[in-house]
Amino acid sequence: MVITFTRGERLMNRKEIYQHITDKIIEQLKKGTIPWRKPWRQGLPSNYITRKPYNGINRLSLLCNDYPSPYYLTYLQIKQLGGQVLKNQKGHLIVFWKVIDITDEEDQHVDEFPLLRYTYVFNLTQTNLYKPEENEPLKILECEHLLNNIRPEPVIRYNTSECFYDKRNDYISIPPMSQFTSREEYYSSLFHELVHWTGHQSRLNRQDLDYATEELVAELGSSYLCAITGIEQLVLKNQASYLDYWLKRLESDTAIFSKASRLAQDAVNLVINV
């Protein structure tokens, strides 16, 4: 068996990944910044060449950065486009799995196993390829278009007095838009409950998830949906206590954000029919 790696790729174990991402998030939280609650006019972190958004823990990690462009490239991709990395710029770690094919002496398939690898990407603004006028935002879906195309269609009770998801009866309750401070607050609240809705046993079945992790899944998932539709999440009224809470959770469980980001991605994929 021969294992080959593309230039720049390395092996990494899960514990190292969790610690790396945790350190980045803690750094942001200590600065008073919630990395997954940022202005979304630029769109989700995506590969510049394929235009595909990064998923899971890579998305969450890249959201910790603060660039005017959402686009990233590997060093090899930059070179292929005839570009260069600007002086004193550091890359950002992303991870991915590669399935290794095990063969016998006659080159016949015997088994396979996954290897966790990592490489580094650079934001477009860290290269000489960046041109502000070409920094177009990713294509986004309008909020109502997104809501009208969810399958299976959720039961949403509009014009109620409270905003919540009723797991037992499987419906979402949302007050009228006039009771919210803005259109953005209305839709981001509705998106939060939609992510809870995806966890029903007939859909993604997150029934056994503890309350704190489920809330984080809903928080991350609603942030991703806000990014897709191009709306901003408002600053939390209790942001200080919110930051303090997640700092304490990260100290006791470095894997929570990796797990939650994966589950949030699954929830978003269900909502947007991917």
TrEMBL record:
<feature type="domain" description="Polyvalent protein metallopeptidase">
    <location>
        <begin position="155"/>
        <end position="261"/>
    </location>
</feature>
<dbReference type="Pfam" id="PF08401">
    <property type="entry name" value="ArdcN"/>
</dbReference>
<dbReference type="Pfam" id="PF18818">
    <property type="entry name" value="MPTase-PolyVal"/>
</dbReference>
<dbReference type="InterPro" id="IPR013610">
    <property type="entry name" value="ArdC_N"/>
</dbReference>
<dbReference type="InterPro" id="IPR017113">
    <property type="entry name" value="Antirestriction_ArdC"/>
</dbReference>
<protein>
    <submittedName>
        <fullName>DUF1738 domain-containing protein</fullName>
    </submittedName>
</protein>
<dbReference type="GO" id="GO:0003697">
    <property type="term" value="F:single-stranded DNA binding"/>
</dbReference>
<dbReference type="InterPro" id="IPR041459">
    <property type="entry name" value="MPTase-PolyVal"/>
</dbReference>
<feature type="domain" description="N-terminal">
    <location>
        <begin position="15"/>
        <end position="122"/>
    </location>
</feature>
